[in-house]
Write a structure and sequence with these properties.
Structural class: alpha+beta
Largest sheet: 10 strands, antiparallel
Radius of gyration: 36 Å
Number of strands: 10
Oligomer: single chain
Order of helices and strands: HHHHEEEEEEEEEEH
Strand content: 5-15%
Distance between the termini: 24 Å
Low-confidence stretches: 1-38
Length: about 350
Amino acid sequence: MRFSRRHSLFVAVVLCASATVVARPAAADSDRGGTQAAPAEEGISARVARLFEEAAVATQRYEAGRQAAEAQKTKTERLERLLTRERKQIAVLNADLGRIARAQYREGGGVPYTAQMLFAEDPDELMRGQRAAWQADLAVNNAVAKSRRAETRLAADEAKAATAWRALEEWKTGLSGIKKAIEQKLEVAQWTLQGQADEAVAAGACRGAVRLDQPDGEPSAAWVAPVATYELSAGYGSGGERWAGQHTGQDFAVPIGTPVRAVGAGRVVKVSCGGAFGIQIVVEHADGYFTQYAHLAAVTVDQGDRVRPGQWIGQSGTTGNSTGPHLHFEVRVTPELGSGVDPVPWLRKRGVKL
C-alpha cells in the first residue's frame, strides 16, 4: 500500500534552508566487504533520505508559521474585545450627554441664555448653574473625543493585525504547497527504491551496502528505538492470517525509505535477501542477544561491520511477506528465527520506552 501525504515565493528560501541539514549522497567505500551498490540504487536511496529531511524542514517551518498565525489571531481577538469595551463606554457617554442636553432644555425652557439672565430672580445662582453645565459638557465632550481617538487607534491596530493574519495564512499556504511537492517527489522516489528492492529479493541476492551520511552528533544513550518516528502496529505474540504461527517481533509502521537504526552497539552477522523477511539485517550485541531488522528497502552496512547505537543501518520498505511499508523488529537469543523474545520489555529494560 502506498503512503500519500498531502507557489512559489517560498521555494528558494525553504530549499536553501533545507540544504544545511539534509543528508548528502556519499560515495560507496571501495574497501568495504560485500557487493557494491549500483550507482542508481545508491542515488535513489540518498535521494529518499534527502527528501525525508527536506519534508521535515518544511514541516517545521509550516508548524512555526501556524503557531505564529495562532498568536496573531489571539492578538487580534484581544484587540477586538478591547474595541468592543471602548464602544460600550462611548455609548454610555453619549447617553449621559443626551440626558444633560434634555435637562438643560427643560430647565431653560428653550429661552436664550441672555433672556434667562434678564428675567432671573437670582442671576448669581443662574450663572453657577450654567457654569456647572458648561463644565459637565466639557468633561463629556473630552471623554467622547478621547474614546473616539482610542476607537480610531484600535481600529487601525485591528486592520494591521488582520493584514498580518492574512499574510501569515498566505505564507502558511505557500509552505504547505512546498511540503506537498516535496512529499510527491518523495513518494515517487520511495516506490522506485522499493522496486529496486523487490528486484533484489526476486533475484535472491542483495545489491550491497548503500553508503549514506549518518545523522550528526553522538548518540545520547546506549540503546535507542529502531526508528525515530513511528506508530506501533502488530506486536509480539499476536496472531493473524499473515503468519503461520504467532507474530515473532514488533512492527513499526513507517514510510518506505525511513532510516532504520541499530538499537545498540554490535556487529552485523547477517545481511540477506529473499524469503518471508525480504531484505533483512541481523546484529549481534555484546550481551549475547541478537536484533533483526526486516522487510527493508535498502541496507547501509555489510556483514561483519561494527555498528554503534543510532547508526543508520538500512531503510525501511515492504519486501518479503509484507502487506505494507513497515519495519519488522525482533530480539533473539540466537541469530535464527524461533528464538525470539518480546522486544518491547527487552527495550524498556534498557531504557527505551516505545
